Amino acid sequence: AELRKASKRLTCHKRYKIQKKIREHHRKVRKEAKKRGRKKPKKDPGVPSAAPFKEELLREAEQRKQRLEELKQKQKLNRQKEHEKKRKLEAKKNAAKIKEKAEGKESSSKSKAKTNKLLDKNSKKSFCRELKKVIEASDVVLEVLDARDPMGCRCPQLEQAVTCSGGDKKLLLVLNKIDLVPKENLEKWLNYLKKEFPTVAFKSATLMKDRTMVTKRRARVDLSRTTECFGSKCLLKLLQEHGKTQNKAIQVGVVGFPNVGKSSIINSLKGVRACNVGLARGVTKSMQIVHIDKQTKMLDSPSIIADPSNSALALALRSIIGTEESGSADVLEGVDAILNHCSKQQVIMHYSIPDFRNTEEFLTLLGQKRGMLKKGGVPDIESVAKLLLCDWTGAKISYHSQPPGSQRLPPYLTEDKIAEIQECFNLKNLEEENNTTVQALKYPSPASSIAFQSAGMANGTIEENKVIEEASEWENMETSKEEEEEEEDFTESDDEDNVEEEEKDVREVTRKAKLGKQQTSPTNPEKQIAESEHSNSVSFSLDKTADEDDAYDFNTDYV
């Protein structure tokens, strides 16, 4: 026989007893409240009908309440996001701990070896090793220069290593990003550089299709700039002719400082996105071979490492370490160096900002204009500085530098060596092709392009043993995403203070509008100053300060 559940019914005696106890408790509570004396909440009388500007005051109070609600909603969402991230982090940590325990000591040693390999791949020594490989394996070395600052992109150590290698290695200069400088300036640079090395004018294709990837939703593209490639036929023809004279398939190494467009040139010659490209510095970490045709192989290389002995300007524009890893002091120093080497008036016109006294003020104005603000409406100077460095090394800003007045050959170059290099290439055809490339493109006007003062050749480190390794910077490169999640501090206390201050302001507006209830003290200026300072500190109370609220005294009769 199955057991039945016990009934929940009570006897009448027990039920009546419970009801009696409840009645007694309520009576006792009422008695205590009567003794204590209950204070009714004072009803807000609102703005009197006789008060002038009543509608404006009510509207203002309503707007403030609305903003308060929006801020509370934002805080709620932020808290939810924070809890979500914390939960995910905890789950990851727990999973990692469980894995480590399960796999034991062997797995931990393997993981350590793996991380060491990753760090080694990102190290400066590894970059030098790969660059050396490319130079040794190449028959022709293309040194890629940014047309906006060609002299600043030249590395004397690299040029010396190629020209003094003793073999049949030839060095070609490729002047990339020619669409970002005025036409007259480009022609001057081509005339200057061709006296030392054969120089090719080039403009990389900006939109390349990747055959290996599924087509995704395309990002917003600046259609004002041409996306097709210029100068690729000229460069290919030059390399193929050199290959025929050598009677063998040639390997062409592409070298240069970060963000000059090495991988983009290979992609343009291939016609497909064969190499990874990006705004971040140091995207290419190892040698990559790309077959252009049967006779030509292109070797993509990591960037040349800028020597720490270089000027602040050279380190800001040519340093291999990305802006995410560099410290705020270095970034600000770099921006300061850039601004000091530019025409201030042109910078003001380009960014559409008022006149500034120093770098910090410039970044503050730019941050306010672009809406890059921290909590409390304070401009995020560090982020603005990093963005500015990315703009100046990327293909966003048009600026130009003038070639030196007199031609001085570097110590590693002699007239015999120049003649020897130039013999291998058909310079007449090269000049004709360069002229057609120059005529085909659209250029910015000299007025819209910022005049820039170059710091001269940038020293680079090619020898592996000369590299001073900074481990911490490279450890950050791989683990930056995880660290960002772990290190994000959500300081909500500031927001909560802002909410309290906003609530005070709302109460203040309604209180000041009352007639005859509370009198304002016009003879106490210190309090008014304190109030105005307090309201100014609140980022979102942009409508009116406390002084403006006190502009009308309701206790005075205005005739």
Automatic annotation (TrEMBL):
Q: Give every CP-type G domain span.
A: 128-307
Membrane spanning stretches: none
Any GO molecular function? GTP binding
For the keyword Cytoplasm, the answer is no
Q: Where is the composition biased (Basic residues)?
A: 1-42
- Compartments, as annotated in UniProt: Nucleus, Nucleolus
* Disordered: region residues: 1-117, 469-559
Keywords, sorted A to Z = Acetylation, Coiled coil, GTP-binding, Isopeptide bond, Nucleotide-binding, Nucleus, Phosphoprotein, Ubl conjugation
Q: Name one GO cellular component term.
A: nucleolus
In terms of InterPro entries, this protein maps to: G_CP_dom (IPR030378), Gnl3_N_dom (IPR014813), GTP-bd (IPR006073), GTP-bd_ortho_bundle_sf (IPR023179), P-loop_NTPase (IPR027417), TRAFAC_YlqF/YawG_RiboMat (IPR050755)
Query: Per the record, where are the segments of Polar residues compositional bias?
Result: 517-526
Query: Has the keyword Transmembrane helix been applied to this entry?
Result: no
**Compositional bias (Basic and acidic residues):** 53-83, 91-109
Residue ranges annotated as compositionally biased, kind Acidic residues, are 470-503
Role description: May be required to maintain the proliferative capacity of stem cells. Stabilizes MDM2 by preventing its ubiquitination, and hence proteasomal degradation.
What is the recorded name of this protein?
A: Guanine nucleotide-binding protein-like 3
Per the UniProt record, the lineage of the source organism begins with: Eukaryota, Metazoa, Chordata, Craniata, Vertebrata
